[in-house]
Amino acid sequence: MKSMWLSLAAAAIASLIFAKMLAARSDADTGAASPIFGVTIPEGYRQWQMIAPSQLGEPFDELRAILGNDMAIKAYGGKTLPFPDGTVLAKLAWKRIPASDFPAAIAPGVATSIQFMVKDSKGYAATGGWGFGKFVDGKPADEAEHRACFACHEAHVKAHDFVFTRFAP
Ligand code: HEC
After folding, report:
1. How far is CA 160 from each of CA 95, 128, 141, rounded to the nearest angstrom?
2. Which of 87, 152, 156 to mutate to test the pocket of ligand 1 (most atoms within 8 A of CB)?
3. Which pLDDT score is estimated for 22?
């Protein structure tokens, strides 16, 4: 009898710990997928290498950093086009604000969105081989926004495999 209570207690503690672990998971692995494409926030994207920074003026007023996974960085290094399957590109965006310690400099303010492009030439054949995902506070943006992704990339940078960003010199 005593051992049954002990194992029940152990099971209860284990499930509590598991629930805590789930609650502690970051945005990166809540698993919420973008509409249409089913793209999720990739694990470890914040540690990827930078391809280039960028910024956009009014009304967005944003600073951005474009990052890529290892496959992306290799493809840029070898000037490989189209990008191979498995390439993932990330665009992190923040409001641009005067740096608190030196107002003439611009610093990242609040994070506005993170966006991804995932290359899978067969899976995303209808959109140039790219799946798109945009997340605000870890949650995917709506379907209408995701419908617009490929249209703009196709209109401007079809000749560069639908990718705007060039590797910063
Ligand atoms: C109106 C045009 C437009 C639309 C719509 C658009 N993008 Fe982009 N995207 C750009 C431009 C311009 C860049 C270049 C970098 C920048 O803006 O800072 C870019 C860059 C990117 C990058 C970095 C790789 C690259 O191509 O340079 C990703 C990832 C990305 N966009 C994802 C998305 C996603 C996801 C959506 C839809 C939710 C989307 N984009 C919709 C214009 C657009």
Report:
1. 28, 11, 25
2. 152
3. 42
> How many other C-beta atoms are found inside a 10 Å radius of the C-beta of residue 106?
14
Contact 134, 34 (CB under 8 A): yes
Distance 102 CA to ligand 1 centre (A): 30
Count of beta carbons in the 10 Å neighbourhood of residue 44: 9
| pLDDT at residue 31, rounded to an integer | 77
In the chain, the percentage of residues whose pLDDT exceeds 90 is 82
CA 153 to centroid of ligand 1, rounded, Å: 7
Please, which pLDDT band fits residue 3 given cuts at 50, 70 and 90?
low
Phi, psi of 128 (to 5 degrees): 70, 15
Asked if 94 contacts 111 with a C-beta cutoff of 8 angstroms, the reply is yes
